[in-house]
Amino acid sequence: MSVYTKLLASLHTLLYGNVCIACGEPISDVMHGMCTHCRYAIPETNYWKHASNPIMERLEGLMPFEHASALLFYAVESDWRKLIHSFKYGSSWHKAYSMGRWYGYALKESPYYADIDVIVPVPLHYKKIARRSYNQSQYIADGISKVMGVRVDGSAVCRVVNNPSQARLERDRRWNNVDSIFAVRHAERLRGKHILLVDDVLTTGATIISCANAIVRAVPDCRISVAVLAVTRHIIKG
Fold first, then answer.
1. For the chain, which terminal residue's Cβ has fewer other Cβ atoms within 10 angstroms, N or C?
2. What is the bridge-based pairing of β-strands 223-232 and 194-202?
3. Cβ contact 143:99 at 8 Å
4. Angle (nearest 5°) at CA 208 between 179 and 213
5. For position 129, what pLDDT does the model report?
6. Cβ contact 64:33 at 8 Å
7. Distances (CA, A) of 65 to 102, 113, 223
8. What is the largest distance, in Å, between two alpha-carbon atoms of the chain?
9. Among 38-52, 98-112, 170-184, whose mean pLDDT is lowest?
10. What are phi and psi of 139, to 5 degrees?
């Protein structure tokens, strides 16, 4: 985590105190920023524990990868959806970082992520960053990095097309929306590495697949694993 991120985290604690990032209730015993009730109510997938899971089945044949998982299920009208929207659209960057740390502890226990060399957050276009002021996937990656002790490279890959938000598009249109929107700037930093590609939410998988394929085209000797914070339940059904 950068010095800037640490300063922001300290400022947030000073201004807002310790409150649960999910329900907003005051807490004294902090576990990844959540109260005890929310911690045990979260809909974890446990996909990082298994050699095969629904995300891997969805991505198989669409991109070359070592392993893929999500921390939790993303359900409409749930507190967890609201939590993700709070840092995706509401500037609550500290929640993305807290969730990233939580995910980092899970991934650290998994044998499938034991040899990760570098963490790459799925990039946003610079115009979208200017509007939101940050990339939420970067903060998730920073949280994972803090726990796993693996460096984050947030500039090796860039988004060269400012495509519309995937959330506003019908499922079939999402694939065309992310075609050729990523490019690798610094292939030399990724050569021969096992890359952990990090994003916030996986629905169809179109964005993560587009980003991964751009990396593989530029760096064919790399290996890629995927860690998304949340996944929609319909991915299980295909």
1. C
2. parallel
3. yes
4. 60
5. 81
6. no
7. 23, 12, 6
8. 49
9. 170-184
10. -70, -35
Which CATH architecture describes the domain 43-236? 3-Layer(aba) Sandwich (3.40)
Q: Half-sphere exposure (CA, 13 Å, Cβ side) for 57?
A: 10
Q: How far is CA 3 from CA 10, 124, 191, in A?
A: 11, 22, 28
C-alpha 22/C-alpha 205 separation (Å) is: 25
For residue range 148-191, what is the model confidence (pLDDT) as tens digits?
999 999 999 999 987 655 455 455 555 455 668 899 999 999 99
State how far the Cα of 177 lies from the Cα of 103, in Å rounded to an integer. Answer: 28
Question: What are the structure tokens assigned to 109, written together?
Answer: 């226990």
Terminal C-alpha separation, the chain: 36
The whole-number pLDDT of residue 75 equals: 77
Q: How far is CA 235 from CA 22, 30, 40, 55, 204, in A?
A: 24, 32, 23, 7, 7
